[in-house]
Specification:
By secondary structure, the protein is mostly helical. The chain contains four helices and no strands.
Length: 132
């Protein structure tokens, strides 16, 4: 593209930028206002008809259980501790059995040879590309 055409395009772009900036400054209102505020007068408070107090929206915890249930909870706590101990013993026994099985397993055979390298070496070289 000729140099003179590039200069004309650059001048057009610069004129558009400067005129856009000038129009933006020209249209600025005299008194700034918040979004949603009317241009004519003073700000009025919004009326929310479906508003609720924050205290009603908070989630409260359920009341504590009666004392009778607390005695049952102690029994179940003891039972769960016994169940946990039995499960831990079972898991330890399984872990020992798996470790023994892995140790007793026969060693694996060596991996087969990789023949991809042989295939690549057997390919003829690519033809030479003419220079561009």
């Amino acid at each position: 593209m000729p140099q003179s055409a590039l200069r004309v395009v650059a001048v057009i772009i610069a004129v558009c930028a400067v005129s856009g900036f000038a129009l933006g400054l020209r249209n600025v209102p005299d008194k700034p206002r918040l979004p949603g505020e009317s241009a004519g007068g003073a700000a009025s408070a919004l009326e929310a008809t479906d508003a609720q107090p924050v205290g009603e929206l908070l989630v409260t915890d359920p009341p504590p259980p009666p004392p009778e249930e607390k005695a049952d909870e102690e029994d179940t706590t003891e039972k769960t501790e016994e169940v946990r101990a039995a499960e831990m013993a079972r898991l330890e026994a399984e872990a020992k059995a798996l470790a023994a099985a892995k140790a007793a397993a026969a060693p694996k055979a060596p991996a087969p040879e990789d023949k991809v390298g042989d295939l690549i070496e057997a390919l003829p070289p690519p033809p030479e590309q003419p220079p561009y």
